[in-house]
Amino acid sequence: MTNRYLIALIAAAAGAAASPLVIGRVAESAQTAPQAYTSPRTPYGQPDLQGVWQALNSAAWDIQDHPARLDVPAGQGVVEGNEIPYKAEALAKKQENLKNAATADPLAKCYLPGVPRITYLGYPFQIHQFEKYVVILYEFAHAWRIIYLDGSKHPFGHIDWWLGDSRGRWEGDTLVVDVVHFNDQTWFDRAGNYHSDALHVVERYTRTGPNHLRYEATIEDPKVFTRPWKMSMPIYRRMEPNAQVLEYECYAYLGDEKYPTSPIPR
Amino acid sequence: MGRGLDINGVSVDTRRYPMNRCKWFCTLPIAALGMLWSPAPVPVAAQFSAPASGKIAGCPWEPTQFYPCALAKAKTFNPPRTPDGKPNLQGIWDKSANDIEEHNEPFELTGTYPGPTLIVDPPDGKVPYQPWAFEQRKVNRERYIAPKAECLLPSPSQHQYMTYSYQIFQNPESVLIVHEHVHSYRSIPISDRPHLGKDIKLFLGDPRGRWDGNTLVIDTRNVNARNWIDRAGNFYSPEAHLVERFTLIDPDVILYEVTIDDPNVYTRPWKMAMSLARIKEKGFELGEESCHEGNRSRDTLLEQGLKPYPGYMPPK
After folding, report:
1. Which residues of chain B have a CB within 8 Å of the CB of A157?
2. Size of interface A-B (CB pairs under 8 A)
3. Looking at chain B, which residue has its C-alpha nearest residue A42?
4. Which of B204, B206, B315, B230 is nearest to B264 (CA)?
5. For residue B76, what are the CA distances in angstroms to B79, B91, B257?
């Protein structure tokens, strides 16, 4: 099993295991009281979502409830109601994906992870806000998303993009992002949950406290699912005073065995 | 979307082809094809070359002549400003240069066309390599795949002058440079906090930004030196120190300067200077260049006997 992108998750899980009560309590308050907190504002008067954030859950392995397996601790899912409404033939494909996940997962080839998977992959990301844009910078593969807040529409398509095309708007204190123009190459997790190029994601980012966001993603894909479904989770601010998104250029290390790189002098 | 595809690590500047003037509709089939493209010879982006007028912001276009003229203009030009009073560099910018020294022969493997040197200091326009490093550059050209052709991130400065568009965002805390190439970014805190610990080396280094009058200064250390400074084998070490300066000299032209110091490789610090041009096409947005995901060039270059560049190797 390749563990390139699991190391951070294992570390995160270890952190969670060390203080389950604290994490559980925070998660609960973030889940149940999204309206109780009024977000501070940016200089442009928009709710301030800026900072370095990270998900802390087991969704990167499996977005549904799951027992433990090698390198994967048991985990509670993030899908509301836990059920993903696959069409019958699509469920068979999901099972096939799961069986072959070690090699068939697009992340095993270090491809861009798609949306919403990149949010809960277990790597930090930084949200920056500007008058007409929200820019999200992800540590994984230096991926970025520009979310246009200028009222523009999605470009004419279909376009096969790994991270789709994101257009946003504010609904009260919530940033709502409409994402389309996906390819059919990405999965939702390491358990083979997948979609087609008809995927339509609506994300909602809401501050629930000084150091928490609530993240929701509604998934619609009539080629694969019988109805839309939703996942949600809290996202945590990285509290280190020197928190900084660094890098993980996954693909840069794929060829290492045959062509070793020079050690960097220390 | 400027360029929908990257094939063989060589970009096709679709924006410079008339068909791309209709933006999305016309470029989409190209974007789709990019995923499937075979490694056949492709047209190379227009190399750094003279504009039709021969002038950029009223200055001669050729970098060594452009530089003193641009420095003079920078002294008098009052740039547009952000709400916090800083020069407003925001927008989408463009540059095209694959070999930083003067080169008169096409170099097919790296996709370079003849072009002038970008080096304004030393005056001979050459990188002041130590003797062993000059030999190493030859080895790099003969033996190794240009890291960019493997979709590795370029050096921080190369990101600003290679053939791709990028968008600059500013707020009081940071400057972001979001690049089409390899779908990557540079996030520059406006901060004097110390650089990362010396054992953290990164493809794009660890930048710190500050304002010097009307100039954005980016100080970068902690590079991993697995990439090059261009596509023609010019290299540095993990001890390199880069100081970049971005100054508006016209509403649509930035004077870009970068000084590179690296006692492991060079005999003295040296400097490049060039213009960056604003893309003024209405509605122009950055696209997604999923370079690694669509890369077919690595295997071809390996078959040709080239090897991946292993990163900086100290002299034996």
Report:
1. 24, 28
2. 115
3. B171
4. B315
5. 9, 22, 18
* Cβ contact A193:A64 at 8 Å: yes
Q: How far apart are CA B116 and CA B108, in angstroms?
A: 17
| Angle, CA B83 vertex, CA A239 and CA B1 arms, to 5° | 80
Closest Cβ–Cβ partner in A126, A135, A252 for B169: A135
Show the beta-strand stretches assigned E in chain B: 6-7, 10-11, 55-56, 59-60, 91-95, 119-121, 144-145, 164-171, 174-179, 184-189, 206-212, 215-221, 241-250, 253-261, 270-278, 307-308
* Tens-level pLDDT at each residue, chain A (266 residues): 344 444 444 444 444 333 333 333 334 444 444 568 999 999 999 999 999 999 999 999 999 999 998 889 999 999 999 999 999 999 999 999 999 999 999 999 999 999 999 999 999 999 999 999 999 999 999 999 999 999 999 999 899 999 999 999 999 999 999 999 999 999 999 999 999 999 999 999 999 999 999 999 999 999 999 999 999 999 999 999 999 999 999 998 886 667 777 777 65
CA distance A58 to chain B (A): 26
Best CA proximity match to B306, nearest among A213, A259, A222, A52: A259
Give the Cβ contact number of residue B239 at 10 Å: 18
Question: Which among A157, A249, A252 is the nearest to B28, CB-wise?
Answer: A157
Using a CB–CB cutoff of 8 Å, tell me whether A241 touches chain B.
Answer: no
Contact status of A153 with chain B (Cβ, < 8 Å): no
Q: CB within 8 A of A258, min separation 6: which ones?
A: none
Query: Quick check: A162 and B167 CB within 8 A?
Result: no
Q: What residue type is A17 in one-letter code?
A: A
Which DSSP state fits B157? T
Please say whether the beta carbons of A189 and A62 come within 8 A. Answer: yes
Closest to A125 measured CA to CA, from A113, A115, A112, A139 = A139
**CA quadruple B94, B202, A162, B146: dihedral sign:** positive
CB B103 within 8 A of CB B238: no
